[in-house]
């Protein structure tokens, strides 16, 4: 389904977000106060506008409140990032995603109403570290300080050809299986009788230590 996104700030993060959303067929309004940056995105974004997003009238006149998602991708100017996030929420935007420079910045963004806060450098560091220490965790998404969604490759024959009811991941590991990736197919919310096959990848949600415990079982 087509959704519309307003991206404020087209640095490396906002810019790559813009290009990827456009590639996947979404509508993107790109806003940046720097004219050269906007010229770069003129032929990429659906609309690209030079504007200082710290000005409430500007945000109103651009109709930011009508967007499904507003991404505040301003980095270094923490004050601007906080102010714009606050104004976007006050204008009634349902989903405001803000980029944080550090954990204090992230805390403030949540406090003032950001729906999601991303911290790309830290998040990518966590991901790369998990990929380095584990052969079986293919992907990793931190949901909170304690919980994660992970994609774990099944390489232990003890798990092969058994159904989810028998394997009982919830009881044994405290993990919920939300999907199974088999070759290129993704089975979402697999039924209890679904069998786990060799080289399947399990999408699991649970506490970090439980994910690590499951990963250790695969060795
Ligand atoms: P990245 O890591 O994504 O490259 P960054 O953390 O270095 O970004 P900045 O370069 O400071 O962040 O900001 C990203 C973009 O946001 C820049 O292109 C900048 O021009 C734009 N920007 C900063 N403040 C505003 C503002 N008030 N209104 C509109 N755009 C802004």
UniProtKB/TrEMBL annotation:
GO biological process: potassium ion transport
RCK C-terminal domain span: 135-219
Protein's recorded name: TrkA family potassium uptake protein
Domain RCK N-terminal: 2-118
PANTHER family listed in its UniProt record: KTR SYSTEM POTASSIUM UPTAKE PROTEIN C, POTASSIUM CHANNEL PROTEIN 2-RELATED-RELATED
GO molecular function, one term: monoatomic cation transmembrane transporter activity
Pfam family, any one: TrkA_N
SUPFAM superfamilies for this protein: NAD(P)-binding Rossmann-fold domains (SSF51735), TrkA C-terminal domain-like (SSF116726)
Transmembrane segment boundaries: none
InterPro entries: NAD(P)-bd_dom_sf (IPR036291), RCK_C (IPR006037), RCK_C_sf (IPR036721), RCK_N (IPR003148), Trk_Ktr_HKT_K-transport (IPR050721)
Record organism: Vagococcus coleopterorum
